[in-house]
Design goal:
about 65% helix, 32 helices, 6 strands, six-stranded mixed sheet, mainly alpha, about 625 residues
Length: about 625
């Protein structure tokens, strides 16, 4: 406490002597006179110690003005050439975000130590100036300065900012030559960059070859798998760390929850939630946000809301996570109520908030509400429209049948239209059988996504709806002859800690014969209550009976049948699908929910469909 008071008194004295940055050049002219040399030598050591303590305090508290005052005093007392003090000054300027001042000081240093190089390279890396960090590293090599693990890890981190995979491989080779590859900081930085560059195999090799791993190493590898959509590998590594008795950090748990969310693996998500409760980091806002997102994406929106409600102090990240969950589950009314409550609590909405609110309006067809929120963004909250907001607004207008207004909005917006915008307009044209605008949207989509066969299928649907059979035949012929491919349908269902996957027309599942027999039985029961295959949703050029068979073997139907076979009676069935659910499967699920007396939850690429008692939460609007 005495030391802190002493620092404040000395710092106040220095600030009075040099109040502004301009004091530094003036101070350079003030040197001790020859007659004062004996007193100067006696005072120098004490002043140096005091100034260095002050600089450390300024760096820690990010006190830039006080730090500049110290710099002026250092020049006054003739300590500007001291390497250690200059390193402390560079560190202070870097911590205060004044990298240019730190670099000027570095360039003027008569003698530089390894710490000097590490400090300035780290400074450029922290502010995203990766090129400058790499140039400094090369300059360091030319001058023959030795490097440390901190030098290499800082330069590798600079590569991460720009996803420089080639440079990372060169630095990896340098680390091997200098025997720094086994260092935990260097190894962690290398695997992090490899993962961010999409070189996940290289990242895994670095991870497995490391003799020592820190908490950051484990969390970086788990996050790397998640970033590269290798969710199963991420969870395997998470459980491996757990089996070794390692303590999980908030970053590892957030990544594991993201992996569970992506795979719709509710059981594993529950297990990670249990680990979270044991670790004592359950109050971390970002972990809680990941937990809410996981439950929402696993189809348990009620559980997500329970987690949200238990948090006393909520920030905008939590509100956005809950709003996004409600919107995804087509709980539009709840989303809008939560949006109003959020503002009442004094939380200012941001651009992410408005994406969820506008999406909620789209799902309910609330055009006027959508217009209101779109205008409210700038008028009340000063949130600029981005391309996602325009996309949501175009979707709202298109779904409501205001196709020309949606097209005008796309033409007028200050951004280049995205594939999702034209895709939304094309889907709306299919619903309202608008061939003219459908062809316009399709033309743009063919240019943006030439290999996406789904766009050709949608246009073919519009032709068929308008009895333009020649164009339908031409579209089918083009699909056969072109490289455009329709992504094959795939569905997943989690049963007793294991995720089972089904392709359309699946043949490899160990119980596939039982599944097909049970499916035929289910179809027979459905026909008794009016089910008839909607073959217009299949565009294959085959006979009607073959079309019915192809529809019957869609992946979500196979996943549903397997769920009925193995899950307890009355238990909900949760299915994840990689494509938009087709009209026939949608009707099938509604009838299945009546026959099986279960809730069936299907998560497709657009939203969640909750089928219960013959009805779907989407209101036939998807």
């Amino acid at each position: 406490m005495r030391m802190l008071k002493r620092q404040k008194i000395v710092c106040s004295r220095f600030i009075l002597q040099s109040r502004h940055v301009v004091a530094i050049p003036y101070a350079m002219a003030e040197r001790p006179m020859p007659s004062e040399e004996l007193d100067w030598v006696g005072m120098r050591a004490t002043q140096l110690y005091e100034l260095q303590l002050l600089l450390q305090n300024c760096a820690r508290t990010r006190a830039a003005i006080e730090g500049m005052a110290c710099h002026a005093q250092i020049i006054c007392v003739g300590l500007g050439a001291d390497t250690i003090t200059s390193n402390m000054l560079m560190n202070m300027y870097s911590k205060c975000g004044l990298v240019e001042s730190a670099r000027k000081l570095f360039d003027e240093m008569p003698v530089r130590s390894l710490v000097s190089w590490n400090t300035i390279i780290g400074s450029h890396t922290q502010v995203g100036e990766s090129e400058k960090a790499l140039v400094l590293f090369m300059q360091m090599q030319k001058e023959g300065t030795s490097v440390s693990e901190f030098t290499v890890s800082s330069v590798v981190c600079a590569c991460a900012a720009k996803c420089c995979g080639f440079e990372c491989k060169q630095l990896h080779g340098f680390a091997l030559k200098t025997a720094l590859d086994s260092n935990v900081f260097v190894g962690t930085a290398l695997l992090d960059v490899y993962a961010k560059c999409g070189l996940v195999k290289d990242a895994s090799l670095v991870f497995e070859s490391m003799p020592e791993r820190s908490d950051v190493t484990w969390s970086s590898m788990v996050a790397g798998y998640v970033q590269n959509e290798l969710y199963e590998e991420a969870l395997v590594l998470f459980h491996r760390a757990q089996a070794m008795g390692l303590e999980h950090s908030q970053f590892t748990i957030s990544s594991a929850l993201s992996a569970c969310a992506a795979r719709a693996a509710l059981i594993e998500g529950n297990q990670v939630h249990a680990v979270l409760c044991k670790t004592g980091i359950g109050s971390n806002i970002f972990v809680i946000s990941s937990l809410i997102d996981m439950y929402a994406k696993c189809g348990v929106i009620e559980e997500a809301y329970i987690v949200f409600s238990k948090v006393e102090e909520k920030n905008v990240v939590l509100w956005n996570a809950m709003l996004s969950g409600f919107s995804r589950h087509v709980r539009s009314l709840e989303a809008m109520i939560l949006f109003e409550k959020m503002q009442q609590m004094g939380i200012c909405p941001n651009e992410i908030t408005y994406v969820s609110v506008l999406t909620a309006c789209s799902h309910l067809g609330l055009v006027q509400k959508g217009r209101k929120y779109f205008d409210l963004m700038i008028r009340e909250h000063n949130v600029s429209h981005n391309v996602l907001h325009y996309s949501c607004m175009a979707d709202i207008l298109g779904r409501a049948g205001l196709l020309h207004e949606a097209k005008d909005l796309i033409d007028r917006m200050p951004f280049d239209p995205t594939a999702s915008m034209w895709g939304s307009l094309l889907a709306s044209c299919r619903i309202y059988r608008n061939l003219e605008l459908g062809e316009v949207a399709a033309k743009h989509l063919f240019e943006i996504e030439p290999l996406n066969a789904g766009n050709h299928v949608l246009l073919s649907d519009i032709y068929a709806a308008n009895n333009r059979w020649e164009e339908v035949a031409r579209a089918r012929k083009f699909l056969k002859e072109s490289e455009a491919k329709k992504e094959r349908g795939m569905s997943w269902i989690e049963i007793r800690h294991q995720v089972h996957s089904f392709m359309v027309g699946e043949r490899n599942h160990p119980r596939i014969i039982e599944i097909y027999l049970k499916l035929e039985e289910l179809v027979g029961e459905m026909k008794k209550i009016g089910y008839k295959a909607e073959t217009e949703h299949d565009l294959h050029d085959v006979e009607e009976s073959r079309k019915q068979e192809l529809l019957r073997h869609h992946s979500e139907k196979l996943a549903l049948t397997f769920g009925i076979m193995v899950l307890p009676h009355g238990a909900p069935i949760r299915i994840k699908k990689n494509l938009r659910i087709c009209g026939d499967c949608h009707s099938f699920m509604k009838l299945a929910s009546i026959i099986t007396e279960r809730e069936i939850i299907v998560r497709d690429t657009n939203r969640f469909h909750h089928f219960k008692n013959g009805h779907c939460s989407c209101g036939e609007f998807w």
